[in-house]
Amino acid sequence: MQAIVEKLKSTAAATKATDIRAAFASDPQRFEKFSVSAEDLTMDFSKTAVNAEILALLVELAEAGGVAEKREDMFSGVAINFTENRAVLHTALRNRTNNPVLVDGKDVMPDVNAVLAAMGKFAEGIRSGSLKGATGKAITDVVNIGIGGSDLGPVMATLALAPYHDGPRAHFVSNIDGAHIADTLKLVEPETTLFIVASKTFTTIETMTNAQTARRFVADALGDDAVQHHFCAVSTALDKVAAFGIDQDRVFGFWDWVGGRYSIWSAIGLPLMIAIGPENFGHFLDGAHAMDTHFRTAPTEKNLPMLLGLIGYYHRNALGYPTRAILPYDQRLSRFPAYLQQLDMESNGKGVTIDGTPVEGQSGPVVWGEPGTNGQHAFYQLIHQGTSIIPAEFMIAANSFEPELRHQHDLLIANVLAQSEALMKGRTFEEAKKQLTDKGMDDRQADFIAPHRVFTGNRPSITFVYDKLTPFAFGRLVALYEHRVFVEGVLFRINSFDQWGVELGKELATGLLPVVEGKESAAGHDSSTQGLVKTLAGLKK
Ligand SMILES: O=P(O)(O)OC[C@H]1O[C@](O)(CO)[C@@H](O)[C@@H]1O
């Protein structure tokens, strides 16, 4: 692998691959050569430092890394999450062909389908008003209580598919900060609210604490007996849910082979299903399944997740770019960057390979972003003229849900195209100076000002274009990014499916609570922690 990385570096230098502007100038066919489509979804990577030689090396890299073999291991239920001895089968949750998927010799599809059917029945009951609250009133508000993968997927997806939202209002509470649940409870009435307690493990302190607060909210207003009518749960830990006191017929299970950050396709998607209905939820699964099939069958040079992952790896390890910006030109994808932060950084933010040795080179980049055009008026300055190169990933639909505002959508499209063009082309000193002198500035002053108006250009971006953000298109987009993370993880030679890096802080927080509450001394903690405990205690009212 390292040999191919070295070859990528030397080839990029020898072929001047990073001079993207020159590549466009010399090849009018560049877009045709370096873009791929699957149905209405097109990925344009012509504005990256890729040329025929680099592409050939990336294909070689995928082969050397054994990506195709690992991909089959994942789809066929091999326990590739070896540190937890688990298969990784979120793809089974959207396996719309229903072909058997075996885990330890047992087909998981009957269970998957049974939970999906139970979710559908429950969601329809809430949506139609046949499942009522304790006082006989229909449910008008659903509050999902979860964190990480038990929150980010549902909240991001419910927002993304807002045009399909015809069920009760949806709210999401995640933070242990009491402000989050307090502000949410002000918006809802106990009699007409359903709380979904969503936790894979059913031990997460944030979720359990918020769930207890919500339970008091219902019990104080309507009595203890009412609680069962206003709660349901989603978890893999059915025994723990029973101990919380939620009725068995209001519990929707999933399995340890579904990672938290890959769980939106499971019963964790219940708030989304209640919001948009089971049929649209099914289209969302269909879209992901279409991407799974594409990922599994398309040749590497035409395979969207493969190319996205290979270019991501190339950016990180051959070109040394430390971050990437996710820039959806779609307000409804405003939480997509946050969702991808967990998906990507919790999966690939590791420093140890599957052999237990340090990662050679770099693993996952910092992922960040905001929707356009808001980002343009905030941090794009740095992307265009800063000293770090930040590969940008743009996404835009050809059609919006507001045909009456077509002129606004055309403006949005013009903006996204302008950004990728500006990043690639830039503006030379001569061009900048001419603009100034054309406006009447004298030569000396123009020489002084022009350097500040130079854009180096050659800044890479990938643009995704699709028809419209339907449930199908959205499911396909999320699955595309999941598989990209997979491809990069294989190339980094890490286990993308555990998350031990979140444990230490959790353990220390548990130990620090009695110290913060003043029940135990801070002795034994470092002097900074002791000092902060003391300062906070001094301010405590
Ligand atoms: O669904 P749970 O078990 O409450 O976990 C929530 C989140 O916490 C994490 O374990 C990280 O702390 C995530 O991986 C997970 O999505």
UniProtKB/TrEMBL annotation:
The active site is at 346 (proton donor), 377, 506. HAMAP family: G6P_isomerase. This is Glucose-6-phosphate isomerase. Signal peptide: none annotated. InterPro entries: G6P_Isomerase, G6P_Isomerase_C, Phosphoglucose_isomerase_CS, SIS_dom_sf, SIS_PGI_1, SIS_PGI_2. Its EC number is 5.3.1.9. It catalyses: alpha-D-glucose 6-phosphate = beta-D-fructose 6-phosphate. It is an enzyme of class 5 (isomerase). Pfam families: PGI (PF00342). Its main location: cytoplasm. It comes from Neorhizobium huautlense. PROSITE patterns: P_GLUCOSE_ISOMERASE_1, P_GLUCOSE_ISOMERASE_2, P_GLUCOSE_ISOMERASE_3. It comes from the Bacteria. Catalyzes the reversible isomerization of glucose-6-phosphate to fructose-6-phosphate. Pathway: Carbohydrate biosynthesis; gluconeogenesis; Carbohydrate degradation; glycolysis; D-glyceraldehyde 3-phosphate and glycerone phosphate from D-glucose: step 2/4. GO terms for molecular function: glucose-6-phosphate isomerase activity. Keywords: Cytoplasm, Gluconeogenesis, Glycolysis, Isomerase. Belongs to the GPI family. It is found in: Cytoplasm.
